[in-house]
Design a protein that fits this description.
Elements: H1 4-9, E1 17-20, E2 24-28, E3 38-42, H2 54-75, E4 79-83, E5 99-104, H3 123-143
Antiparallel strand pairs: 1-2, 2-3, 3-5, 4-5
Bound molecules: zinc ion.
Residues 3, 5-6, 45, 96 line the site of zinc ion (ZN).
Length: 144
């Protein structure tokens, strides 16, 4: 499989690595929103968050916290964004799960442009129930 992030994790493609753990790697995005924009990936290929193995999740979030603190201290940040695009429709361009950590600066004019919607009568409860049911089904299928 030709995956650029697998190649980076395997050391076949160079990257500016800032953190390496047992199952997780963090390196600078080559097309940063700001210098210091970091990508955090599982070393083993997972397409998106829903495919990420449980044993990777904890290490990945701990590494994210460590890297974010490193960004805040080294770049003297007042804040940062944490985000992940999952699926082409969400803007995912490399189909190996990654979390972005991006520095933010005053007046940097970066924003998510969106309009909010309103639920119709009963719609919020119905959507909530669909999601709860899917979560229950998924949890019970994992327990089997
Ligand atoms: Zn990969």
């Amino acid at each position: 499989m030709d995956c650029i992030f697998c190649s980076i994790a395997a050391g076949r493609v160079p990257a500016e690595i800032v953190y390496s753990g047992n199952r997780v790697l963090a390196f600078l995005d080559v097309n940063p929103i700001h210098p210091g924009h970091v990508l955090i990936i599982p070393k083993r290929h997972s397409r998106d968050l829903t495919e990420l193995p449980e044993e990777v999740l904890g290490e990945l979030m701990l590494a994210t916290q460590t890297v974010a603190a490193g960004l805040v201290h080294s770049l003297d940040l007042q804040g940062f964004n944490l985000f992940s695009n999952n699926g082409a429709i969400a803007g995912q361009s490399v189909f190996h799960f990654h979390l972005h950590v991006t520095p933010r600066y005053p007046q940097d004019n970066i924003r998510f442009v969106h309009g909010t919607k309103e639920y119709g009568p009963g719609e919020m409860a119905a959507v909530g129930e669909r999601i709860r049911q899917a979560i229950r089904d998924n949890v019970s299928s994992k327990e089997q």
